[in-house]
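Sanity check

After download, print the first record. It should look like this:
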Amino acid sequence: MQIPRLHPDTVEEVKQRIDIVDIVSDYVVLRKQGRNLAGLCPFHQEKTGSFTVNPIDHVYHCFGCAAGGDAIKFLMEIGKQSFAEVILDLANRYQVPIKTVEVQDSREISSKLSIRDSLYEVMAVAVTFYQNALKQPQGQIALDYLLRQRQLNLETIESFGLGYAPGGWENLYRYLVESKHYPVALVEKAGLIKSRQAASGYYDLFRERLMIPIKDLKGRAIAFGSRSLGSQEPKYLNSPDTDLFDKSKVLFALDRAKKSISQKDQAIVVEGYFDVIALHSAGIENVVAVLGTSFSLDQLNQLLRFSNSKEILFNFDTDQAGISATQRALKEIEPLIYSKEIQVKAKILQLPHGKDPDEFLRSDPDAVNEYLKIVQDAPSWLDWQITQLIQGKDLDKSEHFQQISQGISQLLGKLENSNMRTNYIEKCAEILANGKERLIPVYVQNLQAQIRQSPKKSPTVISKSNEHSLLERAEYFLLLNYLHYPQYRQNISDLLDEKEIAFTIAKHRSLWHKIVELNQYSDYGQSLLESLRDYYLQQKEEFLEVSDLFSLTEKEYEDSFRIAELIEQSIVALEQAHLEIYRQLCLQRWQNSSIMPNGDPSYFLQEYYQTQTKILELIKHSKSFNKNI
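Expected structure tokens:
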């Protein structure tokens, strides 16, 4: 939107409230360095941190690329925004009232604030509504539950913003829409109310429930978790996905836990809201919870931003559902826990007697120390997986022995670290020998043979030859169809520009540059091929490299009916290939920076994981490309 001139008072108040460390920390991992903070510069690639932030003078400076200025300039540069856009965003962030030079513009600009900002606001008001309801007589049932059954104190209840959704169908609706005058469409978009199907009007999504705010990294409410206090089903109910909330990408209490995760260099993942609340109130604050879904790579990447050692402990329930949840979590993050390049140190923490953390902490006065001891002794994900294979099995029964042996070989066959694999082959051979030492060498050989025969994985890592093949074939296909199907030329050009993709194979890059050069002078249409042929006839060696692009094979001609689909797939394949190149670059720089004096590899590590996630999202599309071309 076009932003009217902001009043100097608004600009000045924003400047007064800005915390440059808070702003820069959203983009750069900072560490203490004397009276300043330092990290890797976000404006250029470097191996050792030359980027500093002075929290006293409220400025930043990079000794490598000379970038520098205050927090406003930082946001202008990093987000490519205008001064007015940055000030407006900061005003929203710090809740500074917006005034404009022209008084009438103030109402206009307020009405044009992004839907996200409006959603943040309505969610914050809903949090207050539920908190106030908890303190009323109608909320006594929820307060008693928290104080007596969960044994929480008032300070913890207040700190986590716990509340109560009163009975009745329209309490929140009337408060937000009729009293506070928020648009009903906005309240519905926030996931707080639903439209009636059998009649007109709306009703509250949450009724007679204990309410638990779910917040983003900046501590802003984006959704709610809730628990019924009677027979109402389901027992736990979350907000639906909204513009603010995607439950597969959010971790409960990460906004509170991130500091402790960084300090302890370790994160604990649990299943329930009250597990988190109980552990935090007991002083164990490096804890977050999943939100009723499998632990995902997106969630892992968030945690790894705050842990250099990459140590993640899963403390799920010990019943069959909890074991299945643990298995699913390991499956989701399998590409990184098996990787020899950047290995996540996943561990499995299981409490005795089938208790969850909340129950365990309430079971014994010394439970906190016991819990910390169990954390310290938690087995690795691989030891836990092997234990699960053996659980309830009899090695003296051939059927059980075969199941265990095959399961072990499948697990170890996925390990990319050869030293780790060798070590575990020996350990597992001892398990299979079951006390018969003379059989250990035999089982070592058997496991090695089974592992050699098992198909090699790596769903997320493309070998250099495959990477080059994918890249070359995708570029070839785009050029081929650009030349032979003029009606798709603009579409191909637009996609390349939109995705910021360039041709990187030398012969393809040269051809594309010539196409661009010819297109600058006239609209060649069908004659583009003739013009290119005339040019390449004078460059015979270059022509031999690209001659196959100047005619269609029978299969390529038959594919003409689905060109649009294949163009899209080839663009996706190019994106994947370029991301893989960047991923490898980040890995290389992370490895190099980790051995440099004062090196801080966390920037490249974070970039590696983010790129890894993007590759996973694209990989199914590139598989379609591989099948089709």
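If your output differs, re-run the checksum step. Summary of this record's structure: Residues 563-593 form the longest helix (31 residues).
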